[in-house]
TrEMBL record:
Residues 1-70, 151-172 are annotated as: Disordered. It comes from Cutaneotrichosporon cavernicola. This is Uncharacterized protein. Belongs to the TTI2 family. It comes from the Eukaryota. One of its GO terms (cellular component) is cytosol.
Length: 451
């Protein structure tokens, strides 16, 4: 540029560019006429705009948004918003004004990421569906939600990078910058994704993937779980072949399986289901390796390092194990040396009321495992250990003396012990004449167990 300036400078003087502000007003320029559009499509009523602002202000959550008072206030405000979006005045608003009015509502669309998806406290508020919801969702993704999210492992074309953009410290820089951690941002992303069709999700993946992966790779486990919940809201809309072509299936599984190994208390309930969903679409050796990694991180690591007092974590591991048994089928026999002892060990603690749920979860998983191994000839070597521990459960739970809800759970546990005994007897008939006979001779309390 310096050479060009030097050459041209000897002939002509460069003029600065003329901006719009510098254009002089022409006295002959026709004055703008009143818009005829205002007669047919007047601007939105100021009272309607004020109404929307009042609704939005009532949707701003307090420090504890789960309180019943705010739940009632928010539910009433959302009902008013549902009426407002059906008004003709709503269509007169600009997309920016619609976004400003609607964003507080979708920020509230929790369940809490630290509650099981099926728990009563996790039931979401009813968010109204505005006209042209997909267009509004895209506007929200492109503007208020996009500005603070980027990820070093993603290219501008939303492909997985072999090395992080910004060098080896890029992930540390990402974690240091927490401007995106605003309450409910995951709820807003999940709502936007739910309004898009499969073709729209694939076309606008660059709007969804960076914020999702940023949350999934955060150093705080609760944000990882929120990211997994957002991922679950759109991952099934993307063709698995497209994920494979971009290298995103591997990138997502790497993040998810690392999160599985954390075994946070309270558990991260949204991570395991979406991990299985992605692994299900892999093929051949990649699928086998993915499942092996999931078993190791979700089950073996948890049983190895989780405290025996972390009952909620152990229940979550048992439930995940039961789901994996259903997926792997007889292939689960590869991990029997880890699974069977890990399911039996917690059953040898005193069955206090707070541990009854763990007893039920482990026995249910053990029963599912035994049924899956029918015809495989693998139960016989474990029968002695299983019968011994389960018989102790029968005695301890039967004599503990529970009441109320604990009594109902205890009855479920006793029912599961009978089912386990029946399954072992079906696969190893010799126990009926040996082990069962010894139990009947030992104490009459075992008669209902071995009947």
């Amino acid at each position: 540029m310096a050479i060009i300036d030097e050459v041209t400078g000897s002939h002509t003087r460069r003029q600065p560019p003329v901006t719009i502000e510098e254009l002089p007003d022409s006295p002959c320029e026709a004055q703008p006429q009143p818009s005829t559009e205002s007669a047919t499509a007047p601007p939105p009523d100021s009272s309607f705009a004020a109404q929307l602002k009042a609704i939005a202000s009532r949707l701003v959550p307090p420090d504890d948004p789960s309180g019943p008072a705010f739940q009632r206030t928010a539910a009433a405000a959302l009902r008013e918003l549902a009426t407002a979006v059906t008004s003709p005045e709503w269509d007169k608003l600009s997309r920016e004004d619609q976004s400003a009015a609607f964003l507080p509502a979708i920020l509230l669309n929790f369940p809490s990421p630290l509650s099981p998806p099926s728990s009563p406290s996790s039931q979401p508020l009813v968010i109204p569906t505005p006209p042209d919801a997909s267009s509004l969702a895209l506007h929200l993704l492109q503007h208020p939600l996009r500005t603070t999210f980027s990820h070093p492992h993603l290219s501008a074309g939303t492909r997985a990078r072999s090395r992080p953009h910004g060098g080896p410290n890029a992930m540390d820089d990402l974690h240091d910058d927490s401007a995106w951690k605003t309450p409910g941002v995951d709820n807003a992303l999940a709502w936007c994704a739910s309004q898009l069709s499969a073709s729209e999700v694939e076309r606008h993946l660059s709007l969804l993937l960076p914020p999702t992966l940023t949350m999934m790779d955060d150093w705080q486990p609760m944000w990882r779980d929120r990211g997994a919940r957002v991922l679950a809201s759109w991952i099934d809309k993307v063709d698995p072949e497209e994920l494979r072509r971009r290298g995103l299936d591997t990138l997502l599984l790497k993040s998810l399986t690392h999160t599985l190994s954390l075994h946070n208390d309270p558990p991260l309930y949204h991570v395991f289901p979406v991990t299985l969903s992605i692994a299900e679409h892999l093929e051949g050796e990649r699928k086998a390796l993915a499942y092996a990694d999931i078993v190791d991180r979700a089950l073996v690591v948890g049983w190895t390092y989780a405290s025996s007092s972390a009952v909620t974590v152990l229940v979550d591991i048992a439930q995940n194990a039961e789901a994996l048994i259903g997926v792997l089928g007889a292939g689960v026999a590869r991990w029997l040396k880890s699974i069977v002892p890990s399911l039996l060990a917690p059953l040898q603690h005193e069955p206090t009321p707070n541990r009854l749920g763990l007893y039920a979860a482990n026995l249910s998983t053990l029963l599912a495992l035994l049924k899956t191994l029918r015809g495989a000839g693998r139960v016989d070597r474990w029968r002695g250990r299983i019968l011994d521990v389960v018989a102790r459960v029968w005695v301890q739970v039967g004599k503990y003396g529970y009441s109320g809800k604990e009594k109902a759970t205890a009855d479920d546990v006793l029912g599961l012990t009978r089912d386990v005994y029946a399954e072992v007897a079906a696969q190893c008939p010799s126990v009926k004449t040996h082990e069962f006979a010894q139990l009947r001779a030992l104490d009459s309390c075992f008669v209902p167990l071995v009947a």
